[in-house]
Backbone:
């Protein structure tokens, strides 16, 4: 017999992942956002790590632009989930996203998602 608390927790995680994926789907071409901005838009200011887990579960989904999510410094902290360490940067450069060294030029390309009505 399954534990009802585990079932409820799994349902909450699925819902959170779905909400993260919905925000990621909105990131405009040529823009990036951060794990923290996604969490804040979902009403969970300190959930950047959970956003990362949700993206890791979705990176194989070609329909979601997961490559447009970077850390707060513009660094490609999720790059190893894209098959090769250079693939994430290649995808961003194909969208004419500029870099300052190893980090995205956040002054030019940051998109802040709207806060969800919860």
Residues:
């Amino acid at each position: 017999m399954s534990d009802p608390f585990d079932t409820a927790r799994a349902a909450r995680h699925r819902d959170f992942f779905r909400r993260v994926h919905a925000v990621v789907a909105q990131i405009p071409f040529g823009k990036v956002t951060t794990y923290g901005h996604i969490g804040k838009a979902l009403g969970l200011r300190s959930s950047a790590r959970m956003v990362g887990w949700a993206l890791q579960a979705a990176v194989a989904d070609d329909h979601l632009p997961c490559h447009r999510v970077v850390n707060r410094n513009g660094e490609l902290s999720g790059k190893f989930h894209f098959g090769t360490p250079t693939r994430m940067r290649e995808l961003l450069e194909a969208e004419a996203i500029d870099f300052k060294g190893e980090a995205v030029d956040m002054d030019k390309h940051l998109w802040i998602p709207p806060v969800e009505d919860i």
